[in-house]
Amino acid sequence: MEPIRSLIFFKRYFFDFYDDQTEKVKEKIDYVLFLIRHIEQIPTKFLKHIEGTKGLYEVRIEYAGNIYRIFCCFDEGKIVILLNGYQKKTQKALKGEIEKAVLIMGEYFTQKEEKR
């Protein structure tokens, strides 16, 4: 099965989160990222736009009663840029985590523009 989308891991933000997880959580993250790469219509169970932001999405992962979120954005349509992640402890997304993701997203697009 050929991928529909590409993934870009911007700097170490994603891996700083990923490396702290258990092997089972990493397997679930890998599974959801596989779906994002290979499925045309991704269910909101796995990928959802963050309300009140311009272009920020969250990859949604649940494992053993725990909830994990990885922020991402799209670039050039079929490229998913993975940003920071965190383990969710409450129903609402942490405002500080969203603000951090927005800053990282801005950093990505600024750096991309400077390379042109």
Overview of this structure, please?
With 116 residues, the protein is α+β, with helices and mostly antiparallel strands. Helices cover 37% and strands 29% of the residues. Strands 1-5-4-3-2 form a 5-stranded mixed β-sheet. The N and C termini lie far apart (33 Å).
List the helices and strands and how they pair.
Layout: E1 6-9, H1 13-18, H2 23-38, E2 47-49, E3 57-63, E4 66-75, E5 79-88, H3 95-115
Parallel strand pairs: 1-5
Antiparallel strand pairs: 2-3, 3-4, 4-5
Helicity range of the residues? 25-40%
Major sheet attributes: 5 strands, mixed
| SS strand fraction | 25-35%
Distance between the termini: 33 Å
Features:
single chain; about 120 residues; alpha+beta; 5-stranded mixed sheet; 5 strands; about 35% helix; globular
In short:
The protein is α+β, with helices and mostly antiparallel strands and 116 residues long. 37% of the residues lie in helices and 29% in strands.
